[in-house]
Amino acid sequence: MTAAYRTEALEPETASPVILALPKGRILGECGPLLARAGIRPDASLFDEDSRHLRFATDDPALDVVRVRPFDVATFVAFGGAALGICGADVLMEFDYPEIYAPLDLGIGACRISVAEPRATAGSDDSRTWSTVRVASKYPNVARRHYAGRGVQAEVVHLNGAMELAPVLGLSRVIVDLVATGSTLKANGLVETEVIAPITSRLIVNRTALKTRPEAIGGWIARFREALAA
Q1: Total domains present in the chain
Q2: 210 and 176 in a common domain
Q3: pTM here?
Q4: Are strands 100-105 and 84-88 parallel, antiparallel or unpaired?
Q5: Vertex 188, ends 183 and 191: CA angle to 5°?
Q6: Where are the beta strands (DSSP E) in the chain?
Q7: 17 secondary structure, DSSP code
Q8: What CATH number has the domain bearing residue 156?
Q9: pLDDT by residue (tens digit) across 87-117?
Q10: What is the band of 31 on the pLDDT scale with cuts at 50, 70, 90?
């Protein structure tokens, strides 16, 4: 069953509250001021990392918020579990869901998706001359596309954390991961050698929801646009 089929179950304009999916962690804190400017006041427990709740009311009965893992925001929106979401461009690059429309760059969560390798081998040869490379990453599609663009076949070791250990322990030659300050790379003897893309967070929308609930979804998009202009 495809995501496009599942989203047909989204409810009509007069149905239950619109669901906004937000990411746990660092970006959630940056979402707070943006939500306030958009006139969205969620239950305070949304920002409590110790709270076990996953769904939160707001002061507007037409909107509820769910808090999920950053990588899962796009999946909730693509498959119709949420009509709106905020997620990093890195997630959109990795999954490339056709069911998602991303109308606004929110300018929060700024970082970059980069290649890094051990300081000892960095610059020892030109990566454009490689024929194959083993890469550790939680972004297998991004990594493969990046190297395929220069004619290099990437064998990806899929990890969800502790990426910096992979080259040190011989799992891979390089890693492809998000970089903010670079301090974790430095602490583990790695250096950033390429920036694949700058990353910020986007407002994302389920395309079917926008068609079936145009006034409600369009209204929330407009409020976020106004919040960015404020």
Answers
A1: 2
A2: no
A3: 0.88
A4: unpaired
A5: 65
A6: 18-23, 55-57, 63-68, 84-88, 100-105, 111-118, 132-137, 153-158, 174-179, 190-199, 201-206
A7: P
A8: 3.40.190.10
A9: 999 999 999 999 999 999 999 999 999 999 9
A10: very high
